[in-house]
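Board notes (copied after class):
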Amino acid sequence: MIGAEAYLSLQYLLDSGGVLEDPAVDYLAERVDEMDAAALLEAMELLQERLRRLQPDGAERIRITRDFRILLPERFDTEIRLRPLLKTVFLLFLRHPEGIRFTDLRDYRNELMDLYMGVSGRGDREEMARSIDRLIDPKDNSIHEKASNLSAALSRYFPPDRLHAYTLSGKAGKPKRIRLDRNLVEWE
């Protein structure tokens, strides 16, 4: 059950049009110290849900930092944690909103390698090159496995009705792309 102070603060926020206007923020900020931890947590969850509903199709903004961390600003900069190769694939497709056919990935080898090195920050360059070569080899199933594993990993961060905006999609033989509106993606 939400605390009375948190409820009144949220109701004031929602009644003000659901936008974080200065009076609503001030009202909520004045009462934060009066809330117990459970009430504050519940208030934050309600605010997060309200912010999600304000985005088109419920999609959330993401921010990519200089060191390739993927953050969710509406969730207090929660980091989306992915294995380095999955993160590399995700970032490549974020960079190319037009999409990329899996059979054309070899054209992106250098970009993939640069991303992979930036994401992993360390490691055996030759082993990394072998992983990228497997990924871009049309005879290898590696990219399909990575796309599936990426969807599974992202499902920990997004509910099923919003997951489609962040995963790779596209018909067989056609370019695969991440549907997320690029206005919701910030690169540092």
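Comment from the instructor: The first strand starts at residue 62 and ends at 64. The beta strands are 62-64, 70-72, 78-80, 168-169, 177-178, 185-187.
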